[in-house]
Amino acid sequence: MASTTIQARFSYTQLLEVNRNSYQITTANSLTWSRAVSPDRLLSAVYHSSQLIGVGGGVKPVITCNAGAANLAPGTPIRATSIMVIGATGTLGRQVVRRALDEGYDVRCLVRPRPAPADFLRDWGATVVNGDLTKPETIPATLVGVHTIIDCATGRPEEPIKTVDWEGKVALIQCAKAMGIQKYVFFSIHNCDKHPEVPLMEIKYCTEKFLKDSGINHVVIRLCGFMQGLIGQYAVPILEEKSVWGTDAPTRIAYMDTQDIARLTFIALRSEKVNGKLLTFAGPRAWTTQEVITLCERLAGQDANVTTVPVSVLKFTKQLTRCFEWTNDVADRLAFSEILTSDTVFSVPMNETYQLLGVDQKDIITLEKYLQDYFTNILKKLKDLKAQSKQSDFYI
Predict the structure, then answer these.
(1) Residue 378 to residues 4, 69, 116, 241, 291: CA-CA distances in angstroms?
(2) pTM (two decimals)
(3) Distance of alpha carbon 242 from alpha carbon 300, whole angstroms
(4) Cα 201–332–213 angle (5° rounding)?
(5) pLDDT (mean) for 258-270
């Protein structure tokens, strides 16, 4: 059987080799992932990491996922409406769950065990199962009876970027292949293939390639930015008369409402024309940080107390944190400062995508309309609260 070798960039990866029978990744941090795929879809995945390989030759047990015993018995077909949402408690994930439930899907959510359970997902009608991408042995059982995975997950700010976004995703894709998952929807970042100097973007790009090479029927959706993130970053501080942090960067981002992203995702999920494709979702217009702040000031009816952080300071901080092993994770996240100085525009023309999905551009909410609705609602509530307070003072 002929084989093909592919060399791929990856900031953590020294060598990426792919052929039809084996796949191995070796990283500078002694991370290795190996798999073997046989024609009958029986996949055996073995995971090694620097935590599993003991120093001085001692080797701890490795994790093995074998799908041979996991196949459902004949006569129990999996319904196409059975989906698993990864990252269901996040900004995008919860909108995907709501949309799926509204459209009649049987939704299962993979959630890490936590002191405060994700009860709101159950209240909506979803099934919540405990699992952790950082613990691959917890994944296979959660995928039994699942037709489609929608992967919205990313690591928490306090975690090393590669723990969830690389090691965890590799484990998930391997398990999905072993368990016979029929479709995998993966959310990535726009232009991730053009910025290998940013660890998260490079990881996203390599995960796209890994998913493609796995042979799973899939759709990759690259995103530019979420409108919801602007509320806490700019709108709320302006209303509370607190400092708004910004940069002097010229970078422009076409923010999109996560409800629109979820709606387009399920249109893509149902379309056979989209299978195996790479899509990019972008909002109607790309905005700089200063333009967003100015828009919020106008809608709020008050000036913002803006504290501008020069991009040069962010770059210096990133270089400084690289000097210490315990601050490497901080440096990885500050690597986005490289993009801020590159005049990058996180946007793409959406006409072909709208045509492919059968969507009217007029149905996509603009940032002006999104923020206008927010400020109108919140200012009305503040006005009502102020009126109630005055009424209470009168009766007192």
Answers:
(1) 57, 54, 27, 15, 21
(2) 0.76
(3) 13
(4) 35
(5) 97
